[in-house]
Specification:
The chain has helices spanning about 10-15, 20-30, 30-35, 40-50, 155-160, 240-245, and strands at about 55-60, 65-70, 75-85, 90-95, 100, 110, 120, 135-140, 145-150, 165-175, 180-185, 190, 195, 200, 205-210, 215-225, 230, 245-250, 255-260, 265-270, 280-285, 295-300, 310-315, 320, 325-330, 335, 345. The protein is mainly beta. The longest helix is centred in the N-terminal third of the chain and has 11 residues, at about 40-50. This is F-box domain-containing protein.
Length: about 350
């Protein structure tokens, strides 16, 4: 028998890039050559590039140390448990398969839900949960590094008047494991509560007030490649009254504002279809009352006629809203833990390490 020649490395990378993370883990155990190949930064990036084009998975956070992971988002899907240290109350964000969570004590926890690699983030120099602050998570393509960002007041500044004080901005670099302070957020921006940011188009975004422009609501963006703030146009209806209870998030890769106040008949969901273009904001309204929790998680379905949105709402359930038909239905998740979910979000399968 004539031995088959080894396939070129690039062909192997192309073949393996289409496999799920768990299958790649098994392939790594078959030979030293494959283990080395499938662990290189080049392969991990190639695998990630393909996974970013595929459907996302869900993380659901109940008030316990066991969170739920839904890897395939469809009806009658099966969830699995992720037993984590600590009680995590909020999904801060995800990027390239990494998920950042935060608890009530201002502890940040970075993890890959598929490989189960985990990393505790050191405390930021100035607490955000114990003061008033912003935080977020994203990727710096120039430095090829992931960043955790916090924006906060000193406690003494809050007791006097936060409008007159700079907002301190700190950035945590995951690879080097250090916090660094960057240029402060200008004083005329204000945020009366604690907000998690939305990472889109290389920047983390927050919905804030601007005191020097008749107390209007604006979206600020921190470009993670150069650590510079700029403004992104908000929906035209955004004002100081409605933005306080609005939520800024990522939906289907787009910047999204969830406005719970402007419409008495339901919740308005705004999506910026063309990033940075004010006229590209489009809206759909979900009728009904959903309690204190209403969070669009992702789109499902194929084609515009089948476009549906998975919603996390108050109570032990997920619901699906059909944008075109204006209808709601429950989403069936098998083996789901009974109880409530505090928060949730989406992520992609990847081999990216949080450390």
């Amino acid at each position: 028998m004539v031995a088959r020649p080894d396939l070129p490395e690039e062909i192997l990378i192309h073949i393996f890039s289409g496999l799920p993370v768990k299958s790649i883990g098994k392939c790594r155990c078959l030979s030293k050559q494959w283990r080395n190949l499938l662990s290189t930064p080049h392969f991990i990036k190639s695998h990630l590039a393909l996974q970013n084009t595929r459907s996302k998975s869900l993380i659901l956070i109940p008030p316990s140390h066991v969170i739920r992971c839904v890897e395939t988002i469809r009806d009658n899907t099966v969830s699995r448990e992720l037993d984590l240290p600590g009680l995590w109350s909020e999904f801060v964000g995800s990027c390239d398969g990494l998920v950042l969570l935060i608890d009530n004590d201002d502890e940040f926890f970075l993890m890959n839900p598929i490989t189960m690699e985990q990393s505790m983030i050191p405390d930021p120099p100035v607490s955000v949960k114990k003061t008033q602050g912003l935080y977020g998570f994203g990727y710096d393509s120039v430095r090829d590094d992931y960043k955790v960002v916090t924006v906060s007041y000193h406690m003494s500044d809050i007791l006097i008047n936060p409008v007159y004080f700079d907002k301190l901005v700190y950035v945590y670099y995951v690879k080097s494991g250090v916090w660094r302070r960057i240029k402060s957020l200008p004083r005329h921006y204000s945020f009366p509560a604690i907000y998690s940011g939305a990472f889109v188009n290389g920047a983390i975004h927050w919905l804030v007030g601007r005191s020097d422009k008749s107390d209007c609501a604006v979206i600020i963006a921190l470009d993670l490649d150069n650590d510079v703030f700029c403004e992104i146009p908000a929906p035209s209806v955004a004002d100081v009254d409605s933005f306080l209870d609005s939520v800024l998030l990522v939906l289907g890769g787009y910047l999204c504002v969830v406005d719970t106040l402007s419409n008495r008949e339901g919740t308005d969901v705004w999506i910026m279809k063309d990033y940075g273009a004010a006229e590209s904001w489009t809206k759909f309204t979900v009728s009904g009352c959903f309690g204190d929790l209403f969070k669009p998680l992702c789109f499902i379905g194929e084609g515009e006629e089948e476009e549906e949105v998975v919603l996390l709402v108050e109570g032990p359930r997920l619901v699906v809203y059909n944008v075109n038909q204006g209808t709601l239905r429950d989403m069936v998740v098998v083996d789901r833990v009974q109880g409530i979910f505090l928060d949730g979000g989406t992520f992609v399968e990847s081999l990216v390490s949080p450390a």
